[in-house]
Amino acid sequence: MIRHHERRRMLSGTAGLAMLAALGAGPAQAQAAASPPVQAPVPASAASARTAAQEPPAAAAVPQLAEGGAATAAVTVSGSAAGAAARQVCGSGASWLRLRFTRLDLRGDDSLTVTGSAGGAFRFTGDTWRDRTFTTRALRGDCVTVRPHFSDPSSAYAVDGYQAGTQSLEAAEVVVAGAGDICGSACADTAKLITGTIKPAAVFTAGDNAYESGKLSEYNGDYKKTWGAFFDKTYPTPGNHEYKTSGASGYFDYYGARAGARGKGYYSWDIGDWHFVALNSNISMSAGSEQEKWLRQDLAASTKPCTAAYLHHPLYNVGEHGAATNTRPLWKALYDYKADLMLAGHDHNYQRWAPQDPQGKADSNGIREILVGTGGRSFYALGSGGSANLQAKNSNTHGVLKLTLSSTGYRFDFVPIAGRTFTDSGTGTCHKAGSTTPDFALSAQPSSLDVAPGASATSTVQVAGQNGFSGTTRLTVSGQPSGVTATISPASVTVGSGGTANATLTVSAAAGTPAGTHPLTVTGTSGSLTRTATVQLSVGGGGGGTTVFSDDFETDRGWTVNPAGADTATGGRWERGDPEETQEEGVKQLGSTTSGVNDLVTGRLAGSGPGANDVDGGVTTVRSPAVTLPSGTSTLKLSYTFAHRDNSGPDDYLRVKVVGASSTTTVLERTGTAATDLDGAWKTLTADLSAFAGQSVRIVVEAADAGTASLVEAAIDDVQITSS
């Protein structure tokens, strides 16, 4: 039985169309074997649309908005236990249907297939969809056959409604628009584009929505007077300015449930045949972080052929802020699941990039980034340099990005405010528009290794399931030259539906191996599927020193915060990211790094001012991955900064320790000094690790504000261990 409030939500926004027929009884009449949907060209013209549902994002229910002219209907179709019969859902006169599942619980090897009477199918396997309410991609025809393949008595499914359209799927377009960096002197002008010119079904924001600090009073000021006019169709993300108010409380208070869970701010929603993912680039995005794991699970549970994501900080950027490389793990997850678009702000200008992989290489299977920080704030200059992948840019025109979306692709148009003339437009085809076949992606990180004769290096090989793929993948490596051995452990990994699995590639060069560069090919094989990844190997000459370990913190190399679970710091805990400068009687937290844009820092955000995100309440600890030192002499070198106000004391400190098999050595200790104001400055530590020769060691870094509350900031960068 459908609960009353669910039925009311399903029946809203039908655009005045009559309800379509509910359930076709009797045996299935459509072929249940999986087949890919027919591909269609990208529509060239926009069509305004209204939403068929406007509900806030929820953790276990993904909102589904429909194209203009689509209708919704309620049905009751379910099945459970072994031998559950196939059922049909039909809508008289429909060209396509999308089914809404309120339950899909698949146990063991059980599966379920949905097949359109005029083409298209999707096969569900694994536990990805358990405890999730979602709507499928559109399936062609006026009926959809639901065919369970159940042998486990606990397997079950339930469908409570559907969307349907009488126009062809090719013509079923829907419009989404938005921008970042909004209020802003020109936010009234950009709001007029939304309400008057474009009239989209949904609006995204790419962060820094209400200046200067994202306070609730600022949201209730100019933002509410302008962009607040379409609050009920807005799906926001926060920027760094929102976090100048502690915990971005003004942002979460203003948007409420529309902003996702408080403190997280990431969520997803569907519109037409597109899956949109709102991400929070102000919290941890590292591989294995809560957000990154959620993203992979969310992408694995989407049946949509097209995917767009949006956040504040762009990975690729030729503006003043530069590349936010700490977003790369999220890009990697999106790339693994064949996402199509990434929308961003932060730099107050417009940039359009060609599809790229997570390392910035042009890739027809990559993600197109469009940076649209043009919502109303004053402009930032663009760099004079460029990139071969940068296709369009502008730094003097406010406007919004209009996306006209179909089931197979998209058209983008930059729409300028009145009186300005810059425009940009183009089209793209979704990577999964013709594919529902289970597949997997294979990658290696790092993708290049430098090994001296007599030394070894490792890379992490990852298998990521796509389109419901689950199973065992056998891993091999080839291409190693004479004198080099390469092994992968374990040699086989098993991936659950929507999951990932890792193995370690170890490459060793024997003494006397000639110098040279060699591409190694890692191959993954699962049944008839074969995928490869390349690792570039450079062998050094002369039998000299080698780099045993290095980390510039531009990617996640496996450092662990609070490894013993005993940290007491209530704020300013270690994190990897792009730090924001703080000043109080001089610079305390440095906004610079010694290389790249990221370091390891005690609270990377400036927050609402100095002291807002510094170390507070005790000790914060971070530990490196294990590093095996060769025999002989090894040297640790790293950059660090330690700063404090004149309210500091000797119980405030920065310490670097090396922990071996049976002993621990403190190689750096800097403590606070009462009545002394110490500004931040990058310095270099060099330490001899010969006492740990042949051992597996970890580097442990501690920072503390352990006594009377004081202002304490610390960071490290460019850690390197070399041996000779």
UniProtKB/TrEMBL annotation:
Keywords noted in UniProt: Signal
Disordered: annotated segments: 555-583
PROSITE patterns attached to this UniProt entry: MAM_2, TAT, TONB_DEPENDENT_REC_1
SUPFAM superfamilies the record matches: Concanavalin A-like lectins/glucanases, Metallo-dependent phosphatases
MAM domain: residues covered: 549-724
Organism per entry: Nonomuraea roseoviolacea subsp. carminata
Domain of life from the UniProt record: Bacteria
InterPro entries the UniProt entry points to: Calcineurin-like_PHP, ConA-like_dom_sf, MAM_dom, Metallo-depent_PP-like, TAT_signal, TonB_box_CS
Name the UniProt record assigns to this protein: MAM domain-containing protein
Coiled coil ranges: none
Signal peptide range: 1-30
